[in-house]
Structure formats: structure tokens, C-alpha cells
Amino acid sequence: MLAPNFWRADVSYGFMEAVDIPQLLADAKVMGCNINLHDVTYYVGHDTIVSRTDGKGLPTWQTAMFALLFRNAARLSEFLKIPSDQLVEIGRQVPI
Fold it and tell me: How do residues 20-44 score in pLDDT, each as one tens digit?
């Protein structure tokens, strides 16, 4: 415990291990971390790929291809098994 009601956890996962953040917090609660699991809010970032407007970016077809692949990739919240009703996504546009 760093301060009253302030905890830090360092967690390492291997390449093929499934990450489950809510389970990690449940395990921390068992170890003495005083946390209400239903009152947790998760914050994750979300990027959207857009074309650069200054003409210095990738060719249009490459930008479109990369944006399509990026958009179809697994979302971070799904990978971490974060419940959607406790999730706040902070988005930004990334020009390439």
C-alpha cells in the first residue's frame, strides 16, 4: 500500500496467457486490498486512424488498408476482459 486507499500492483503475463483485469482485482481484494469491485471504473485509450491533411502521409490506399486492419483488430477492453458498463474510452485521431 502506497498510501491509505491507494494501491499499486505490478503484474506480468506471458505471451499466451489470458489477461483478466477484473479477476486480478478480485485476487487483490482477497489479499487485503479494500476495493468494491462493482464501483470500479476502467479507463482505456482508443485510437482512430485518419489520413494526414498536409500531403506528407502514406498514400491513400495504404492509409485505408492500415485503418481497416487497425479497426478490425481486437479491442483492448475485450482483450483485458473489462466489463463494458464500467468502461470509459478516451479516443483520439492519429494521422498517418
Answer: 999 999 999 998 888 899 999 999 9
At which residue does the C-alpha cell 475485450 appear?
A: 78
Q: How many CA atoms lie within 13 A of 18 on its CB side?
A: 6
Q: What pTM value is reported for the model?
A: 0.76
Pairing of strands 87-95, 42-50: parallel
CA 81, CA 13: separation in Å to the nearest integer? 14
- Interatomic CA distance for residues 23 and 38, integer angstroms: 12
89 CB-near residues (< 8 Å, 6+ apart)? 44, 45, 46, 77
